[in-house]
Amino acid sequence: MGRTVWFPGHMARGSRKLLELVRDLDLFLEVRDARAPLLTASPFVESLRSARPVWQVLTRRDLADESVTSRWIDWFRSRGDEAWAYDLRKDRLDDLIRALGARRPAHRELRLAVLGIPNVGKSLLLNGLVGRKSALVGALPGITRGVSWSKGRGFLVVDSPGIADPHAGASVHRHLAWIGCSRAEVIGGTDVLALGLIGALRSRGLWRLVEKSWQVVDGGGSDEALLEAIGRRLGCLVRGGGVNLAQAGKRLLDAFATGRLGRVSLEKPGEAPSWEESD
Ligand SMILES: Nc1nc2c(ncn2[C@@H]2O[C@H](COP(=O)(O)OP(=O)(O)OP(=O)(O)O)[C@@H](O)[C@H]2O)c(=O)[nH]1
Ligand SMILES: [Mg+2]
Question: What separation in Å is there between the alpha carbon of 123 and the centre of ligand 2?
Fold first, then answer.
């Protein structure tokens, strides 16, 4: 499949600015989504690993399978990485803040940067660390546009724009978009994305989530027929009684990305990542 480029100007500017800042920083916090920690790894952060220690923070613990997330934490720690998992909307970050406090140099504040791909929760993590709404948080990728400092107790922390992998292919973007970390328009729009998700849910034995939430049964028909059935069930209709497929697709994508269909881990430690196969 062809390459899909999504690397707007603010990502290029953000990565240049961060590279200039590296010498002033002590540590990076890499933010990834607990539902897919390999898919949401940042190649930009990987390129900085030799410069400074990188600690891992898995977000959206509340949307992932709990036992799989604790296996991911073990997996990171077995590689020698510090790692935590949070529901950033609810959890206190005391243990992470304590660990940061222990790294504080003797005569000044610790300086760190929060890094990662778009929409993984970097700004919400920063707000949790500093204990106030310092950074703008939003449901769409691409909210933070620049690099800025905030002050916490004993540390200074930089928020940064999400930096996508400029070389990621369509399959990677499709999987990222399902969990809200890429934009539908990058891979051909909502309909294509929703049909792909239906196919993936069916082939991975996850259709039961849709069945349980919306009582739409997979009777063996096409992915299009199932999207239509979802639209009918949710009342996404056009004048004359037909189904508004775009609206139905959007409802399905939103429900999956925000966990309303249930908690799902798309990746498990030791399993080959499924997003690699069709790229
Ligand atoms: N349920 C849940 N939602 C979360 C969690 N962490 C972040 N979010 C939501 O994810 C969305 C993105 O959060 P941000 O902090 O803006 O993400 P970001 O990485 O700064 O995004 P960009 O600046 O666009 O790259 C927001 O709607 C958050 O409320 C979490 O642990 N659980
Ligand atoms: Mg942000």
Answer: 4
